[in-house]
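Run log, item B.
One chain of 105 residues. Sequence copied directly from the ordering sheet:
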Amino acid sequence: MLAGTEFARDEYHAALNSDALVIATEWSVFRSLDLAHLKKIMRHPLIVDLRNLLSETEVSRCGFDYVGIGRGDPHREIDAGAFGTVAQLPPRRTSESMVRQMSAR
């Protein structure tokens, strides 16, 4: 196991009090998240979808900031809450840069 790795009993316990939810798997459980519940339990409503499982329109409508790999305008500003604002990054680097920035803290 990786040192410092924490396991959660489900997706909602993993997201509890988190600054961001990073989806890095195609497991079906992540395709049908209760977004209203997630927004209530997360510290900051940010979803970084590395598998493009979710609809950006639906996630944004529920009040989340959303980043999907290879989606949208890579030059738009994204409010990353406690991590600051990520803007004007080269194409296809916005999501990767946000993940690196979150990991560094």
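Observations after the first pass:
- The CA atoms of residues 54 and 61 lie 12 Å apart.
- The beta strands are 21-23, 46-49, 65-68, 78-79, 85-86.
Flagged for discussion on Thursday.
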